[in-house]
Amino acid sequence: MAGDFPSKPMSLYATIWDASNWATSGGKYKVNYKYAPFVAEFTDLALHGCAIDPIQEVLASACSQKDDQLENNNYASVTPKQRVAMKKFRKNYMYYSYCYDTIRYSTPLPECVIDPVERRQFKDTGRLNFNERHHHHSKRSRQVPSMRNYGDQDED
């Protein structure tokens, strides 16, 4: 489909999973649907597939080849580089994990892989134990006053 653009704008529909009943302090912060429809923008989106005639609904042989390619790709595998990037992202941005929420889920759910090192960073509620790496100090508090030579003062 590269280079083939429709004469009318395309749209993509998605669902939004509303977790505000449990993921926001027990439902303290609800989704405000008055701001709907929610809009997402995609940059450099590459769609893999082939154009078909919607009236005939017959797949061309080129389409079946592309279907075979898509089905044979292993989208479930993660490269070591992607794994490192994901671990870094989780370390910097994740502040809750239901996998570590032992109060709500006494037994980890089947999809959870418990990392003992990561587990120590979370309370029994699944919320992050805030420590020094998550406190953001202003730039001013980190600056060291510079030594200035004022007038007749000697530099010792």
From TrEMBL:
Residues 3-34 form the GH16 domain. SUPFAM superfamilies: Concanavalin A-like lectins/glucanases. GO terms for biological process: fruit ripening; glucan metabolic process. Gene3D superfamilies: 2.60.120.200. GO terms for molecular function: hydrolase activity, hydrolyzing O-glycosyl compounds; xyloglucan:xyloglucosyl transferase activity. It is an enzyme of class 2 (transferase). Keywords: Fruit ripening, Glycosidase, Hydrolase, Transferase. The keyword Transferase applies. It catalyses: breaks a beta-(1->4) bond in the backbone of a xyloglucan and transfers the xyloglucanyl segment on to O-4 of the non-reducing terminal glucose residue of an acceptor, which can be a xyloglucan or an oligosaccharide of xyloglucan. Residues 126-156 are annotated as: Disordered. Its EC number is 2.4.1.207. GO terms for cellular component: apoplast. Residues 76-112 form the Xyloglucan endo-transglycosylase C-terminal domain. Pfam families: Glyco_hydro_16 (PF00722), XET_C (PF06955). The keyword Transport does not apply. InterPro entries: Beta-glucanase-like, Beta-glucanase/XTH, ConA-like_dom_sf, XET_C. Residues 133-142 have a biased composition (Basic residues). PANTHER family: XYLOGLUCAN ENDOTRANSGLUCOSYLASE/HYDROLASE PROTEIN 8-RELATED. This is xyloglucan:xyloglucosyl transferase. It comes from Rhododendron griersonianum.
